[in-house]
């Protein structure tokens, strides 16, 4: 079974040049930082750095989003994707993932 880290790492090429740092809060103990400011995006363990936004999502919904089975706008409007911080950055992020 895939882990959140593996799935996010596989998605990194789609996040190159995103231009922002984003936190994925997938569960209480599974939180990751994607630094998309450089040409090549990086996946980092969570820390206290400031991010443009935080995406709160369950593991199942994250996997569905990454697989293109969850539309980001529908997920957000149904509360399956929650955003803290910049909604514009979040929409740019999830549109590149789906």
TrEMBL record:
SUPFAM superfamilies hit by this protein: SCP-like (SSF55718)
Top-level taxon of the source organism: Bacteria
Record's protein name: SCP2 sterol-binding domain-containing protein
SCP2 domain ranges (all copies): 4-97
Listed Gene3D superfamilies: SCP2 sterol-binding domain
Protein source organism: Roseospira marina
InterPro entries: SCP2_sterol-bd_dom, SCP2_sterol-bd_dom_sf
